[in-house]
Design a protein that fits this description.
The protein has 69 residues and is mainly α. The protein is built from one helix and no strands. 97% of the residues lie in helices and 0% in strands.
């Protein structure tokens, strides 16, 4: 009878431990998703700034070439 309780206790501890690991993995996945989302927003901001910079450079080139003619 004692052996049966020991096996049940080990099963309970194992299930609890696996559940705990699953919770940790879910929290990690959630924080990783938030981090990647923030990086995506940052990347979009950098791309917008780069496009603005390129358009200003092209406009300056057009103005300089037009004045030189």
């Amino acid at each position: 009878m004692n052996n049966k309780h020991n096996i049940e206790f080990k099963k309970t501890i194992t299930i609890f431990f696996l559940g705990f690991i699953c919770v940790i993995l879910l929290i990690h996945a959630y924080t990783l998703t938030i981090d990647l989302n923030e990086r995506g927003k940052e990347k979009e901001k950098i791309l917008k700034e780069y496009r603005l910079y390129k358009s200003l450079c092209n406009e300056a080139k057009d103005n300089n070439s037009g004045g030189a003619k």
